[in-house]
């Protein structure tokens, strides 16, 4: 908590308007003392975001500017639940955010990391300084879980119902994480080589860790998530080999090797990137 607050001191946006006071986050974070758990059954409402799913609080000037990036293919009902829930959730936090959905439009096995690279690439062009890389099936339930970047990359979804609120292993770095745009760029994003389930997040952990950016986690209570149910994906049998190869390929495989075969559409609630 302290970490986010300290970090924000250095992130005052340019052109700070004198008419608007900076938004406060301390109150939300301190609310954690009695933790506000959002129940997904309660009636949720949110303000209509700007086209493309961007939102800025009106009564104050947000210090946090976050791109929420969701890798996606063919999970319509989960996407609907996720998007509606997340607007409601994020608007409670007084942050400036925009939701990007990066859709893989081909018949190859799903490439989660590559979709995240595309999302991040667009977010960078639009000057977002904090990235939250987020699976579509995860819902955070504590509004004190601020969707901003700390000094170090942060593993957010570390207290998950489907893992019985335990960490399966210490270096797990999938699900939902935050990382500053600067740091993401510094490690050349994620590898584009992982098709199918597994390993891409472990490779990303290696990238950030070997760059001296050892990921952090906050208090487990803050990081509680529930997972929407879905069919298990087939694991990528090559993932062990890929992880070995990826070690020496990091410099050429990532943000700098993306082919920009994409189109961008501004939906009412999110920016939809189609990658072919
Ligand atoms: C791990 C997967 C991760 C996945 C987590 C949680 C691999 C590589 C094996 C060396 N890693 O086992 O990608 O996020 O489980 O489900 O499969």
| Uncertain runs | 9-18, 30-35
| Alpha plus pi helix count | 7
Q: How would the global form be characterised?
A: globular
Q: Mean pLDDT score, rounded?
A: 87
Measured by DSSP, the beta-strand proportion falls in 15-25%
Portion of residues within helices: 25-40%
Question: Total number of β-strand segments?
Answer: 11
Bound compounds: 2-(butanoylamino)-2-deoxy-beta-D-glucopyranose
What structural class should be given to the helix and strand makeup?
A: alpha/beta
How far the N terminus sits from the C terminus, by CA atoms, comes to: 39 Å
Oligomer: single chain
Give a quick account of the main beta sheet: strands, pairing sense, barrel closure: 8 strands, mixed
The radius of gyration over CA amounts to 18 Å
Order of H and E elements: HHEEHEHEEEEEHHEHEE
Subcellular location: Membrane
Organism: Exocentrus adspersus
InterPro entries: Galactosyl_T, Galactosyl_T_C, Galactosyl_T_N, Nucleotide-diphossugar_trans
Enzyme class: transferase
